[in-house]
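Running this now, will post back.
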Amino acid sequence: MKNFTRKFKALIIGLFLASTTLFSVGYVDSYFEISKNLDIFATLFKELNIYYVDETKPGELMKTGIDAMLKSLDPYTNFYPESDIEDYRFMTTGEYGGIGSMIRKKDSLIIVAEPYEGFPAQKAGLWAGDIIEKIDGKEITGYKTDEVSKLLKGAAKTNLMLSIYRPVQDKSFDVQLTREDVKIKDVPYYGMLENNTGYIKLTGFTQTASKELKDAYKDLKEQGMDKMILDLRGNGGGLLNEAVNIVNFFVDKGQNVVSTKGKVTQWDRVHKALNEPLDKEIPLTVLIDEMSASASEIVSGALQDLDRAVVIGRKSFGKGLVQQTRSLSYNSKLKVTVAKYYIPSGRCIQKLDYSNKDDRGKAGEIPDSLKSEFKTSNGRPVYDGGGIEPDVKVESENFANITYSLLGKQIIFDFATLYRSKKDSIKKPYEFVFTENDYAEFKEFIKTKDYDYTTKTEKLLKDLKEAASEEKVHTNLQDEFSSLESELMHNKADDVDKFKNEISRIIENEVISRYYYQSGRVESELKYDLDIAKALEVLKNKQMFDSILAGTFAKKD
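Update: finished.
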């Protein structure tokens, strides 16, 4: 055992020495502190595995320790063991080996949430709402979604057998699928809107993002596009070079797009536009929201800094950190934060300061007092330390409590499943309308469903009653509380009618997805979208568009 301990410590320290020779003298200065702690860790790990009362699983134990260590840094520095390599591949390429379907948990069951068009699950005839009972004969009831996901993923051209139960038809069946390399499109939808305006939805920045966007642009240009909306809402980012390529489509060759600065000088780089642009002149708007992050913020922020596009929507997420993937032993990977990025004005839009956490380990936002003003090419003021602020702000939509309840309890999902079982086809997404008769069927469907909810006012009243009871004044206020309760208690039946328009819209979108999948979802929402309506308004008004970029537009409160 002493031999094992010595070899284990020698291996860890040897690996450390091999890596540190690549870096600066500062690392050598701290060698003793690092080697001492590696020695402590090695001996602790050995003693734990030998003497702990129950059987330990060394691989799982090590993974837990690594994850906890990395969690103390930032949420973007992650370890991928060989068993999770499909997740890593999906992160970088948008591709993985599997059946091509989203899954979700419902009570103790795993259900198909949405098959991807053109991939094994959809080709095998699986529907959203189908319950997966067994995988290769193994019962999965009670499994977590990530556990089932691992069973479904695997190398392309390998087979698996699923046992399925379809509740809407009270039907059980087995289906054999052959896994494929599933590639999620970075551009799930593009099309022409009114007034020769082209629309492109970009949902990721994998290795094919710039090519897909370029192909969509060329197709729309052939259809007569002379104005463009690029939709980055909900896009959490991806590869930095793809973001640079996309900015390059609209700015001069040689233009600085983004620079990175890290502790190690090899990460101090300037990324320029390397190619001739596709179109320097087309009026361009970019849509962002709270979930637009990282590469999305490079694209929207760079185009804003260069006064090349009007940014519309809500302030972006605020992720100004760059990750690099490092290969480790046994085919494992480390995704590590190596630098911060700075867009053309010189600002970094990182919102949270992970180097300074509170006692609970929570990173605080950079205070306004420490934020700095920068200038766009035309001299417009922009600021660092908190995401990309849109040039034209559009308030986010707030749905009613009943709508959130119907969504959260999957009642709208279940109704769409039932709808799909009754109709083999529907009209195209832009033509389909969820009718009055359809809504009447929905109201009948939910009569036996539990979709109760508590409004914010009701919660406040409940808190007030509890506080009054604690302070012994509840009895004196009983009549007042009763009166308030009768006034405030919502009537679910009334709310179903009161908020019919927004509920119908969401049902319509869910139903369309059962026939036209992801692209249908995007297309069906276009006619209701407030951000797109604002983008069309700005693009139709050349004076407004130009004055926003010039910094002379007078905003109306």
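Confidence is low (pLDDT under 50) at residues 15-25. More later if anyone needs it.
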